[in-house]
Amino acid sequence: MKLIIVRHGDPDYENDALTERGRKEAEALSERMKNVKADECYVSPLNRAKQTAAPCLEKMHMEAAELEWLREFAPVVTRPEKKGIAWDWLPQDWTEMPHAFDYYDWSDHPALEEAGVGRERDWIYSEFGKFLEAHGYRKEGKLFIAVRSNNDTIVLFCHFGLGCVLLSYLLNLPLFVLWHSMISAPTSVTTVVTEERREGIAQFRMLSYGDTSHLYAAGIEPAFAGRFRECFANENERAD
C-alpha cells in the first residue's frame, strides 16, 4: 500500500482559507496529482485542506471522504513564553524535557498533560490504526500484520502537525522530535509505502518527505509557512 500525505497550501489561518499564493500552489499541485492513480482520497474537515484538495480532485476525477481526525492537531499548550500549538517550543525548552526523545512518553510533561496532548495523540493513533486495518494492515507492537496485502494508493489531504502524528505511528518515531526537526512546506507531498519482506509481516518506509518539485516546475518558490528564521539576523523571516 502507498500512502500519499499532502499538506494544505499557504494558509490564511485566521479565516481558515488559502492565501492567493496558496491557491496558486494548489493549482500547481493539481498538475502533479492529476497523474496519480489513486484508489481513495480523504480530506481534513478544515477549509484550507479542502481548498487545496479541490483542484486536485477535479483533475483526478475523484471525490474525497472527510475524516474528522485528519484535522490539524488541536490542543493549545501554555508554553514558558505564550500559548500556542503543541510543537512550537524553543529548542532550549523542548530538548531539556525528560522524555522528549521517547516514542510515547514525550507527552509526560505538565504543560502537555494540562492541554490534553497525549489524549489527542492517542485518539488519532486509534482512528488511524482502525483506518489502516480497514485497508489491510493491522499494527501489532512495532510491526504491521498484512491481513490483506494490496497495492492500493491512498491520498490524505491534511496538515503539517497532523501529518507528523501519522508518520510517528507508521514509522515508530518520537512525535515531538518530528514536530520540531522536520517541516513540510505548503502543498508538499510525502510518500510512504509498505514493505513485506516476509509474507504477512509489513513495515512502512518513507520514499520522500515534503516534496515540492511541483512548485519549482511551476516557477513557485515554496512558502515559508511553518519555518522560523534561518539566521537570527534575517529580519525578513519569521522570528516567532
What does this structure look like?
This protein has 240 residues and is an alpha/beta fold. The chain has one domain: Rossmann fold (3-Layer(aba) Sandwich). The protein is 33% helix and 24% strand. It is built from eight helices and twelve strands. The protein has helices at 20-33, 47-60, 91-94, 110-115, 117-134, 160-171, 175-181, 213-217; strands at residues 2-7, 11-12, 17-18, 40-43, 64-66, 76-78, 83-85, 137-140, 143-146, 153-158, 189-198, 201-211. Strands 5-4-10-1-11-12-9-8 form an eight-stranded mixed beta sheet, with helices on both faces. The protein has a two-stranded antiparallel sheet with strand order 2-3. Strands 6-7 form a two-stranded antiparallel ribbon. Strand 11 (189-198) and strand 12 (201-211) form a beta hairpin. Helix 1 packs parallel to helix 2 (47-60).
According to DSSP, the number of beta strands is: 12
Radius of gyration: 18 Å
Percent strand equals 15-25%
Q: How does the overall form come out from the CA principal axes?
A: globular
- Structural class per helix/strand content? alpha/beta
By DSSP (H or I, 4+ residues per run), the number of helices equals 8
